C-alpha cells in the first residue's frame, strides 16, 4: 500500500476510534451513574455533587466517572482495530444478558410472590413457616431483601447459563395468568388481588423489557415518507443522529428524572419497598418502578449499539442491515 493509502487508512481508523470511544464512554458513565446512585441513596454516601465541599467520599464518587471514562478509553486504545459492527454486536450482547436476567427475575419473583400471597389468603402460611416468618413475609421491607433479592441473584446466574430472552414465554405467561383469572372467577367464583397483580407485573415487564430487543431486531414500525428512498449512507446519518439526539438523550432524561433524588419516582418506591394496598396482593410494586430504570438502561445500551452500526453504514463498512423491512410508506 502506498504512503497516501496508509495515511488514509490511519485517519479512517482514528475516526472510527472516536465514535467507539463515544459509545463506550456513554456506557461507562451510565455504569458510574448507577453505582453512584446506589452508593448515595442505599449506602448513605454524600453523592458526587458534594465533591466541592472536599468530602473524601464525595471526591471518590466523582472520581468514579473519571475512572469509567478512562476504562472506556483504555478498552478502545487496546482494541484499535476492532470494527464498529463488532463493537455494536458486543454491546448488544451485553444488553441481551441484562434482559435475560430481567426476564428470569420477573418469572421467579412473580411465581414466588403468587405462592406466598395464596398461602396468606388461605391461612396456610403460618402452618408452613411458623408465626414469626409468616409475619415477616407480610412486610415488604422483609420480603424484598430476603425473598426477592436472592431470587434476583439466582436469576442473574440463570441468565449466564441460558441464551433465550424469553419474550414469547413471557407473553404466554401473561395469557395464562389472565386465563386463570377468567376460569377461577366464572367457574369457581374465586378471585384474589394477587391474580390481577401478577398479570400487571408480567405485562409491564413484557412491554418495557422487550423494547430494546425490538429495537435490535428493527421490529418497531417505521412510518416515513422520505427515509425509504435515502441512500444507505444518508440512512446511517439519520439513524446515528436520531440515536444520540432522541434515543440516548431521552434515556438519560428518564434516569435523571427518575433517579436524581431520594424522593424521585424510581428511587422512592425502591427505597421503601413500596407495595399496593389491595388486600393480599403481590409485593412487587417497587420492582415495577424499577422496570422504568431497566427500560431506560437497556434502551440506552441498545441505542449505543445502533449508533455504532449507523456510523458503520456511513463509512460504507460491510455487513449492514436492510432498514426498509419494517417501514410503512
TrEMBL record:
<keyword id="KW-0813">Transport</keyword>
<protein>
    <recommendedName>
        <fullName>TRAP transporter small permease protein</fullName>
    </recommendedName>
</protein>
<feature type="transmembrane region" description="Helical">
    <location>
        <begin position="194"/>
        <end position="215"/>
    </location>
</feature>
<feature type="transmembrane region" description="Helical">
    <location>
        <begin position="59"/>
        <end position="76"/>
    </location>
</feature>
<comment type="function">
    <text>Part of the tripartite ATP-independent periplasmic (TRAP) transport system.</text>
</comment>
<comment type="subunit">
    <text>The complex comprises the extracytoplasmic solute receptor protein and the two transmembrane proteins.</text>
</comment>
<feature type="transmembrane region" description="Helical">
    <location>
        <begin position="169"/>
        <end position="188"/>
    </location>
</feature>
<keyword id="KW-0472">Membrane</keyword>
<feature type="transmembrane region" description="Helical">
    <location>
        <begin position="97"/>
        <end position="119"/>
    </location>
</feature>
<keyword id="KW-0812">Transmembrane</keyword>
<dbReference type="InterPro" id="IPR055348">
    <property type="entry name" value="DctQ"/>
</dbReference>
<feature type="transmembrane region" description="Helical">
    <location>
        <begin position="145"/>
        <end position="162"/>
    </location>
</feature>
<keyword id="KW-1133">Transmembrane helix</keyword>
<comment type="similarity">
    <text>Belongs to the TRAP transporter small permease family.</text>
</comment>
<dbReference type="GO" id="GO:0005886">
    <property type="term" value="C:plasma membrane"/>
</dbReference>
<dbReference type="GO" id="GO:0022857">
    <property type="term" value="F:transmembrane transporter activity"/>
</dbReference>
<keyword id="KW-1003">Cell membrane</keyword>
<dbReference type="Pfam" id="PF04290">
    <property type="entry name" value="DctQ"/>
</dbReference>
<feature type="transmembrane region" description="Helical">
    <location>
        <begin position="236"/>
        <end position="260"/>
    </location>
</feature>
<feature type="domain" description="Tripartite ATP-independent periplasmic transporters DctQ component">
    <location>
        <begin position="179"/>
        <end position="309"/>
    </location>
</feature>
<keyword id="KW-0997">Cell inner membrane</keyword>
<feature type="transmembrane region" description="Helical">
    <location>
        <begin position="21"/>
        <end position="39"/>
    </location>
</feature>
<feature type="transmembrane region" description="Helical">
    <location>
        <begin position="280"/>
        <end position="308"/>
    </location>
</feature>
Amino acid at each position: 500500500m502506498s504512503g497516501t493509502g496508509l495515511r488514509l487508512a490511519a485517519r479512517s481508523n482514528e475516526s472510527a476510534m472516536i465514535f467507539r470511544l463515544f459509545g463506550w464512554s456513554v456506557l461507562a458513565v451510565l455504569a458510574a451513574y448507577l453505582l453512584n446512585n446506589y452508593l448515595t441513596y442505599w449506602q448513605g454516601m454524600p453523592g458526587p455533587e458534594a465533591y466541592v465541599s472536599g468530602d473524601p467520599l464525595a471526591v471518590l464518587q466523582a472520581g468514579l466517572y473519571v475512572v469509567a471514562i478512562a476504562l472506556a478509553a483504555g478498552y478502545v486504545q487496546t482494541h484499535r482495530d476492532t470494527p464498529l459492527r463488532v463493537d455494536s454486536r458486543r454491546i448488544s450482547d451485553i444488553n441481551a444478558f441484562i434482559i435475560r436476567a430481567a426476564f428470569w427475575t420477573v418469572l421467579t419473583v412473580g411465581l414466588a410472590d403468587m405462592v406466598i400471597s395464596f398461602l396468606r389468603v388461605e391461612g396456610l402460611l403460618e402452618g408452613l413457616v411458623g408465626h414469626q416468618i409468616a409475619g415477616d413475609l407480610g412486610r415488604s421491607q422483609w420480603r424484598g431483601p430476603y425473598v426477592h433479592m436472592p431470587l434476583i441473584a439466582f436469576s442473574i446466574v440463570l441468565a449466564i447459563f441460558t441464551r433465550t430472552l424469553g419474550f414469547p414465554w413471557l407473553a404466554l405467561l401473561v395469557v395464562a395468568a389472565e386465563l386463570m383469572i377468567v376460569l377461577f372467577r366464572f367457574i369457581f367464583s374465586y378471585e384474589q388481588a394477587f391474580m390481577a397483580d401478577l398479570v400487571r407485573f408480567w405485562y409491564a415487564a413484557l412491554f418495557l423489557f422487550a423494547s430494546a430487543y425490538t429495537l435490535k431486531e428493527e421490529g418497531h414500525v417505521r412510518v416515513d415518507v422520505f427515509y425509504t428512498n435515502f441512500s444507505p449512507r444518508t440512512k446511517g446519518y439519520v439513524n446515528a443522529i436520531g440515536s444520540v439526539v432522541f434515543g440516548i438523550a431521552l434515556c438519560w432524561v428518564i434516569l435523571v428524572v427518575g433517579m436524581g433524588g431520594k424522593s424521585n419516582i424510581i428511587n422512592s418506591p425502591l427505597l421503601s419497598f413500596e407495595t399496593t394496598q389491595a388486600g393480599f396482593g403481590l409485593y412487587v410494586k417497587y420492582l415495577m418502578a424499577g422496570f422504568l430504570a431497566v427500560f431506560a438502561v437497556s434502551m440506552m445500551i441498545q441505542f449505543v449499539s445502533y449508533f455504532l452500526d449507523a456510523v458503520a453504514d456511513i463509512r460504507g463498512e460491510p455487513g449492514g442491515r436492510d432498514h426498509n423491512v419494517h417501514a410503512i410508506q
